[in-house]
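Today's session is about reading a structure prediction critically. Students often jump straight to the picture, but the first step is always the sequence itself: look for stretches that repeat, for charged clusters, for runs of hydrophobic residues. Only then move on to the predicted structure, which in these notes is written as discrete structure tokens rather than atom positions. Here is the chain we will use throughout the hour.
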Amino acid sequence: MSSDEVVGLEDLSLVELDEGQVCVRAQAEQIHFVSLSTSLVDFATTTPLQDDCVSHVPIEIVSNLLDSAGDLLGKNQAEEVLVALSPLLERSHPPPSLCRFFSRQCRAGPRCPLVGQLFTPVVRRAVVRMDFGKYPYMRRFIQDFIQALNCHNDGVNVVRNFVKSMHGPASSCPHPRVLSNLVSVCLAAMFQIFSSKPSNLGLNADSMKDIPYDEQLLCYLAVLDTISEFEDWRPSLAQLLQPIPFPEEALSNSFFTRSLSSVIRRIGTDHRCDVHQMVLGIRDGKEGYFSIFSPSFSGCSDDGELWGLMLERLLSCCHRRKRFLSQLGGKLLGSCLLLALREHEAAQEALCTLLEWQIVQSDDQRVQIATTLQSTPTGRANYLALCSRQLHLKELQQKGGPRKLTLPSRSTDNDLAKLLSCGSFGNLECLSLAFTGVTSACAEQLIKLPSLRYLNLWCTQFGDLGLVLISEHLPNLQVLNLCETRVTDKGLLSLTSLTSLRKLNLNSTHLSAQTLQSLKMKLPALKEIDVRYTDAW
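Below is the predicted structure for this chain, in token form.
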């Protein structure tokens, strides 16, 4: 090979030819480029010289030529170049320009069989030996490579098999860099997907730009899920994921949290303390997966099933301590109450401990905990056993019950009925059912609360039938919040019988201007009314 040959290839664009001559010249140069690459590789593989540069220098030369003239190559010629380079790439990592060329090949033809055949050895070598912090271009190429594998038939399983092949046959993985590199590729890809504001497009695509964003996410989530299956990889994976390195948009995406739940399940239920404690926040005041997957969090998609499993593991191991239980008695109390209503033993055990150790100081909350425990057979047995040790607890419900009560989010009509069916609620004045799943059917239970003054039904499925019923039986209501409910003029007109009503929130309901005027005329005590985002606004 002479320097004139290289210069001649780089200066193709300087020759002015007619259209037919350009086509012939381009074909000739493509053949020349492939021949040149093959000659370089043949020389490197057959020379008796023993030096790293024997493999690396030809790769650098071809890489520079591809970077400057790669667009002139057709698909077949590009594949021939890749086939020719493959013997050298098994002994040396590709430079940045060649990685960019590989990425373009992955994105342009992800279903091409050669992508998997030729790139897999390159990727395996890079994942084992390279530090992606120093070589970000290699991380991007592997990101595109995984997405290309996902485009094949049964793509997710192809990705999973690739990850399993990186673990190795031994019981303990021999390559400590593999795990961190695979995780960094997935995290970088996820941030890019969510920052690019993707849109759902067709699945029958020949290039990766047409893949729906959930399908793009799925292959990287499959990588994390496969990693979590290996017991020897799980401790390191748990440590890497404990700071919650995912974008905020991902944590509020139900598809993402639902797909990630299998990874968190394996970490949160692992028998080793140094693994399952990683679901807690990395420091005080920092939320962990234990909080994110609680029923109180908007991203929860399983009604707290996973959260209950994590709670059971934490309480049975090393976290039956006041510091941890104080967290349960704070922001996560609603989640504990909800699961206890549904006869979850670990949640009932936690509530009993909150009472026994006097962690919850509010009398209303303590009464609510006691009432919740007594609403199920197992909870009642646990509460009676507790009362036998703590005699002062017997007095909790001998004073007419709590004055204030907030039902946990995601509660249903059955949960409310179960709670109100035991214990005394004659003193209950304030009840919040906001952001729960209650419907008009819960009105049958609400009308049994004669002292009720404040009722919050914000963002529930409550409708006209329930509104008519409470208007007839709760004449002492003074504050009613119906924001974002299903009520219409038909039900709202019944509110005219609530002559004690002082504050009314009808924000984002089907209220008309005519009904609004009627309410103002027939409710003399009404001082505040919110009608934003209605037809009367």
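Discussion point for the tutorial: Residues 1-33, 198-206 have pLDDT under 50 and may be disordered.
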